[in-house]
């Protein structure tokens, strides 16, 4: 039972990171109509900023630099590559994000090289025990920060001018343009927010129990994509639920891998994708997507 | 009119002549080229067959898929396992089937796997498939590592030499053609060309048929396709299965080219490379698949071999990285600049279809040429269905 | 199998709701076999929703649609099409790069039988089927005056002819019921006359029932045998053009929309 609870807690923490990534992915989908396959690279950018600056600046300022840097990178990607494609249909634009990802990944892999990089989190590998349940300080802080960010984000999405414009634009871009919404600005803001969310997730995903930053972080980000689809791709709340479901499922499968050995070693990594296929088999449009009465 | 016709005729003649010349050059190439080029050629032929498969699915039917590496893996494993040595000195056993049968089975089994996942894949619309298809790559990697009795696990397994009715595509038996020794790669060169020619012909037939038209209609206007009597699910399923079958053959050829298979050869990166092939070459066309496969296959190998010629390559960026910069950049450039030369890109990169409200006020494009009055009414009558 | 004949269509108590909004509210009417039947009404009256219900794109929350007695509401769009319902679209948006011939052949999809393997291997029966259907499509194109343009990419044609191609594609399905969604929208007077003539000729040459949404009242009054008027998702009038014209409910529905004068005089704006 204690094992189960600690796995659950670890899973929720991991899931909250996935949720941050997936929510960014979903708002980009809503704003630009593309699946942003360069999202993994955004995480890498964020973590790389911290890894390369924390020695000289200290961890706090390094995080600040990383947040600004990732936000700026996300904005630039949108401005340079996605904005010019706004009259194209979604699939070519999505393939452009794959092209961005190829370029960013080869650039960042070159920068990072083979070894692991420390991000210099002050809490390092400490663990705490709550009741009988243990968790790394990194994951605990991550969970708290993510929870605050998610609440803040949801409020922003519901109340702020950006959130309202964004939802209006996703409903009906033409009407939104007619009433004078500056769609370009809304879209740019969206990418910047997604970049910030990705950067925060990256900082905690590279901390304990993960030993540090390597290009493998990119793959971790891919695991968050199913979270977005499970939630229904257009639903911010869906992305949150999807992230948590996948985080918990992965954590449990990894924790009980001795009992799951018949499924093969390292099954935990595949679990998010198995969950994804099961959900899609039952509901092809995801759990939270509102699709009209159309059927083809 | 006749003037235009003539011009068109002569252009056709030139195209034909160039095509014949090209084929002749390809046929005599093994007499002159060294092994490096022949090997590259065979690899490119195999890749072109796989790219054709993806192009039918993504280029023609508009279904973005990143699962191609998974289907290549299924083909490669099926071939290697079925044709493998039943009693090898090292590594996992095989079934010892004749390689030709194993290759045919690679196609059949991979198509069947494609059919198996189509209850999910053919019901997904838009970008859902693109993301969901990631699942197959990751699950595929897991299976490759886990089912080690068949796949050889992390180390992989060797892939048997190809042979047809006792004629081996290897250096074993000696064969001289016009004084040139025809070894493994000379022989494989022709195998690759033959299989590519057959696949390209079949692919072109498909794209010109009712099914090809249905694919494009599903891609461009799913709703209108359905209302025109096209079963959208069935169409997507057809595209998926054909795409898988070609990937299966391509995977088997890959195994033959390398002589062994391992999980790393079928990672997500490979799926992306195939996507790059069809975008650079031209979406939805057979020629595009072949050109794109040739470029993407050759790039890393050529930068490896000749990279030193260019500044930076080697010291600042590795040849492999240089190739990735090149094709990543090319991918974006082709999509953003839409050069007219790549015919089918235009089909996908069309302006977004205007929604109802906008188009009501849309001015009439192309002027108001009067519609020709209908000709003889009696000419049209209801006919019994063509059987 | 003998050639099919025109089919009657019955719409009974059809309701379509999107959340709280009812696009169609308990709409019933019948389309007689061989009639040219017009559906008119102000913008947002539910005309397009009605077409979508008949084609199987929307599933109504209540009600039934029957073609020649056969219930359609449980069928998927391509199955409805397979029963003999051809439909043209208000917005011409056929695949732009496709040639006119290919666009028309799309309408033959369900009438052709060759499987994927047969076409890939270029089997003689697949080739023969393609040839025969091309011949029939050429006949239909000829009727529409499109025979000279078969090999041209669709987007090269002027708008009026693109609309004709869309109607012709629906006719290529050999339908028993032809549904036309604003075939004259965006056309000038001469073109409108031409399409009117084509519709009447098609009806008699091919023995079809025609269901027509159109805003051009002149055209509607001229070619329709029967009219159904929708407003806010409800059927407000149903009858012969002259009966509908004098129905006070219709006049008040159109009042203030600027179309009131049209319906009374039966002229195009």
From TrEMBL, chain A:
<feature type="transmembrane region" description="Helical">
    <location>
        <begin position="133"/>
        <end position="157"/>
    </location>
</feature>
<feature type="transmembrane region" description="Helical">
    <location>
        <begin position="94"/>
        <end position="113"/>
    </location>
</feature>
<dbReference type="Pfam" id="PF02653">
    <property type="entry name" value="BPD_transp_2"/>
</dbReference>
<keyword id="KW-0813">Transport</keyword>
<keyword id="KW-0029">Amino-acid transport</keyword>
<feature type="transmembrane region" description="Helical">
    <location>
        <begin position="188"/>
        <end position="208"/>
    </location>
</feature>
<dbReference type="InterPro" id="IPR052157">
    <property type="entry name" value="BCAA_transport_permease"/>
</dbReference>
<feature type="transmembrane region" description="Helical">
    <location>
        <begin position="220"/>
        <end position="248"/>
    </location>
</feature>
<dbReference type="InterPro" id="IPR001851">
    <property type="entry name" value="ABC_transp_permease"/>
</dbReference>
<feature type="transmembrane region" description="Helical">
    <location>
        <begin position="57"/>
        <end position="82"/>
    </location>
</feature>
<feature type="transmembrane region" description="Helical">
    <location>
        <begin position="260"/>
        <end position="282"/>
    </location>
</feature>
<protein>
    <submittedName>
        <fullName>Amino acid/amide ABC transporter membrane protein 1, HAAT family</fullName>
    </submittedName>
</protein>
<keyword id="KW-1003">Cell membrane</keyword>
<dbReference type="GO" id="GO:0022857">
    <property type="term" value="F:transmembrane transporter activity"/>
</dbReference>
<keyword id="KW-1133">Transmembrane helix</keyword>
UniProtKB/TrEMBL annotation, chain B:
<feature type="transmembrane region" description="Helical">
    <location>
        <begin position="38"/>
        <end position="57"/>
    </location>
</feature>
<feature type="transmembrane region" description="Helical">
    <location>
        <begin position="124"/>
        <end position="144"/>
    </location>
</feature>
<feature type="transmembrane region" description="Helical">
    <location>
        <begin position="188"/>
        <end position="207"/>
    </location>
</feature>
<dbReference type="InterPro" id="IPR001851">
    <property type="entry name" value="ABC_transp_permease"/>
</dbReference>
<feature type="transmembrane region" description="Helical">
    <location>
        <begin position="95"/>
        <end position="117"/>
    </location>
</feature>
<keyword id="KW-0472">Membrane</keyword>
<keyword id="KW-0812">Transmembrane</keyword>
<feature type="transmembrane region" description="Helical">
    <location>
        <begin position="274"/>
        <end position="302"/>
    </location>
</feature>
<feature type="region of interest" description="Disordered">
    <location>
        <begin position="354"/>
        <end position="387"/>
    </location>
</feature>
<keyword id="KW-1133">Transmembrane helix</keyword>
<dbReference type="Pfam" id="PF02653">
    <property type="entry name" value="BPD_transp_2"/>
</dbReference>
<feature type="transmembrane region" description="Helical">
    <location>
        <begin position="12"/>
        <end position="32"/>
    </location>
</feature>
<feature type="transmembrane region" description="Helical">
    <location>
        <begin position="64"/>
        <end position="83"/>
    </location>
</feature>
<dbReference type="GO" id="GO:0015658">
    <property type="term" value="F:branched-chain amino acid transmembrane transporter activity"/>
</dbReference>
<keyword id="KW-1003">Cell membrane</keyword>
UniProtKB/TrEMBL annotation, chain C:
<protein>
    <submittedName>
        <fullName>Amino acid/amide ABC transporter ATP-binding protein 1, HAAT family</fullName>
    </submittedName>
</protein>
<feature type="domain" description="ABC transporter">
    <location>
        <begin position="9"/>
        <end position="257"/>
    </location>
</feature>
<dbReference type="InterPro" id="IPR003439">
    <property type="entry name" value="ABC_transporter-like_ATP-bd"/>
</dbReference>
<dbReference type="Pfam" id="PF00005">
    <property type="entry name" value="ABC_tran"/>
</dbReference>
<dbReference type="InterPro" id="IPR051120">
    <property type="entry name" value="ABC_AA/LPS_Transport"/>
</dbReference>
<dbReference type="InterPro" id="IPR003593">
    <property type="entry name" value="AAA+_ATPase"/>
</dbReference>
<dbReference type="GO" id="GO:0016887">
    <property type="term" value="F:ATP hydrolysis activity"/>
</dbReference>
<dbReference type="Pfam" id="PF12399">
    <property type="entry name" value="BCA_ABC_TP_C"/>
</dbReference>
<dbReference type="GO" id="GO:0005524">
    <property type="term" value="F:ATP binding"/>
</dbReference>
<dbReference type="GO" id="GO:0005886">
    <property type="term" value="C:plasma membrane"/>
</dbReference>
<keyword id="KW-0067">ATP-binding</keyword>
<keyword id="KW-0813">Transport</keyword>
<dbReference type="InterPro" id="IPR032823">
    <property type="entry name" value="BCA_ABC_TP_C"/>
</dbReference>
<keyword id="KW-0547">Nucleotide-binding</keyword>
<dbReference type="InterPro" id="IPR027417">
    <property type="entry name" value="P-loop_NTPase"/>
</dbReference>
């Amino acid at each position: 039972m204690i094992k189960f609870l600690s796995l659950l807690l670890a899973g929720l923490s991991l899931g909250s990171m996935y949720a941050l990534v997936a929510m960014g992915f979903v708002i980009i989908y809503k704003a630009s109509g593309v699946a942003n396959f360069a999202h993994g690279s955004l995480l890498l950018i964020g973590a790389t900023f911290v890894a390369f600056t924390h020695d000289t600046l200290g961890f706090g300022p390094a995080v600040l630099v990383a947040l600004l840097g990732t936000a700026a990178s996300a904005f630039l990607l949108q401005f340079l590559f996605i904005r010019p494609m706004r009259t194209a249909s979604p699939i070519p634009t999505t393939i452009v994000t794959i092209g961005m990802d190829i370029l960013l990944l080869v650039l960042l892999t070159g920068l990072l090289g083979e070894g692991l990089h420390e991000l210099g989190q002050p809490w390092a590998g400490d663990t705490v025990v709550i009741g009988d349940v243990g968790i790394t300080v990194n994951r605990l802080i991550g969970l708290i920060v993510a929870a605050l960010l998610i609440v803040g984000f949801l409020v922003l999405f519901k109340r702020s001018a950006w959130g309202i414009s964004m939802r209006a634009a996703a409903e009906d871009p033409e009407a939104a343009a007619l009433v004078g919404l500056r769609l370009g600005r809304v879209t740019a803001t969206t990418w910047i927010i997604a970049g910030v969310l990705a950067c925060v997730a990256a900082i905690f995903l590279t901390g304990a129990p993960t030993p540090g930053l390597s290009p493998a972080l990119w793959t971790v980000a891919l695991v968050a994509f199913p979270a977005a689809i499970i939630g229904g791709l257009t639903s911010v709340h869906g992305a949150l639920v999807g992230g948590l479901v996948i985080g918990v499922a992965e954590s449990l499968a990894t924790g009980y891998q001795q009992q799951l050995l018949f499924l093969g070693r390292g099954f935990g990594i595949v679990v998010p994708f198995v969950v994804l296929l099961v959900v899609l088999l039952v509901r092809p449009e995801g759990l939270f997507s509102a699709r009209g009465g159309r059927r083809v | 009119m006749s003037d235009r016709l003539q011009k068109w005729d002569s252009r056709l003649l030139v195209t034909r002549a160039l095509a014949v010349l090209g084929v002749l050059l390809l046929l005599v190439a093994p007499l002159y080229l060294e092994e490096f080029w022949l090997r590259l050629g065979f690899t490119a032929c195999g890749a072109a067959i796989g790219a054709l498969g993806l192009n039918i699915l993504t280029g023609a039917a508009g279904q973005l898929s990143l699962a191609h590496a998974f289907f290549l893996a299924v083909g490669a494993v099926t071939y290697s396992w079925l044709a493998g040595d039943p009693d090898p000195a090292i590594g996992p056993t095989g079934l010892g089937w004749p390689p030709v049968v194993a290759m045919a089975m690679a196609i059949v089994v991979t198509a069947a796997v494609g059919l198996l996942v189509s209850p999910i894949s053919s019901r997904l619309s838009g970008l859902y498939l693109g993301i969901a298809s990631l699942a197959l790559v990751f699950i595929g990697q897991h299976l490759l590592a886990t089912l080690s009795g068949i796949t050889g696990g992390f180390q992989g397994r060797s892939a048997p030499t190809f042979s047809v009715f006792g004629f081996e595509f290897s250096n074993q038996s000696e064969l001289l053609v016009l004084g040139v020794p025809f070894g493994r790669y000379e022989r494989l060169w022709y195998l690759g060309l033959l299989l590519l020619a057959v696949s390209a012909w079949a692919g072109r037939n498909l794209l010109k048929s009712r099914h090809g038209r249905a694919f494009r209609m599903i891609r461009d206007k799913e709703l209108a396709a359905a209302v025109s009597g096209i079963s959208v699910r069935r169409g997507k399923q057809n595209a998926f299965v054909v795409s898988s079958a070609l990937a299966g053959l391509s995977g088997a050829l890959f195994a033959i080219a390398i002589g062994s298979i391992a999980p790393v050869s079928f990672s997500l990166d490979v799926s992306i490379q195939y996507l790059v092939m069809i975008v650079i070459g031209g979406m939805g066309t057979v020629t595009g698949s072949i050109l794109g496969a040739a470029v993407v296959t050759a790039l890393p190998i050529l930068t490896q071999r000749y990279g030193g010629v260019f500044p930076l390559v080697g010291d600042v960026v590795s040849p492999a990285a240089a190739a990735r910069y090149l094709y990543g950049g090319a991918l974006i450039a082709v999509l953003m600049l839409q050069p007219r030369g790549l015919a089918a890109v235009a089909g996908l990169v069309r302006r977004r279809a205007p929604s109802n409200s906008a188009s009501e006020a849309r001015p009439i494009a192309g002027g108001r040429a009067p519609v020709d009055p209908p000709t003889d009414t009696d000419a049209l009558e209801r006919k019994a269905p063509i059987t | 199998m003998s050639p099919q004949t025109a089919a009657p269509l019955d719409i009974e108590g059809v309701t379509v709701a999107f959340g709280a909004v009812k696009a169609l509210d308990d709409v019933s009417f019948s389309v007689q076999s061989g009639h040219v039947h017009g559906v008119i009404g102000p913008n947002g009256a539910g005309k397009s929703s009605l077409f979508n219900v008949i084609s199987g794109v929307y599933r109504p929350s209540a009600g039934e649609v029957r073609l020649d007695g056969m219930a359609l509401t449980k069928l998927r769009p391509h199955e409805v099409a397979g029963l003999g319902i051809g439909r043209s679209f208000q917005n011409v948006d056929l695949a732009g790069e496709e040639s006119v011939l290919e666009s028309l052949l799309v309408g033959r999809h369900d009438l052709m039988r060759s499987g994927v393997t047969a076409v890939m291997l270029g089997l003689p029966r697949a080739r023969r089927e393609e040839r025969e259907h091309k011949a029939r499509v050429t006949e239909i194109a000829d009727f529409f005056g499109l025979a000279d343009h078969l090999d041209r990419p669709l987007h090269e044609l002027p708008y009026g002819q693109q609309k004709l191609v869309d109607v012709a594609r629906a006719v290529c399905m050999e339908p028993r019921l032809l549904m036309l969604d604003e075939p004259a929208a965006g056309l000038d007077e001469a073109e409108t006359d031409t399409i009117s003539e084509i519709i009447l000729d098609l009806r008699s040459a091919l023995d079809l029932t025609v269901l027509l949404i159109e805003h051009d009242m002149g055209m509607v009054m001229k070619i329709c045998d029967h009219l159904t008027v929708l407003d806010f998702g409800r059927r407000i009038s149903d009858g012969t053009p002259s009966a509908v014209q004098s129905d006070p409910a219709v006049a008040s529905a159109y009042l203030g929309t600027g179309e009131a004068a049209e319906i009374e005089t039966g002229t195009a704006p």
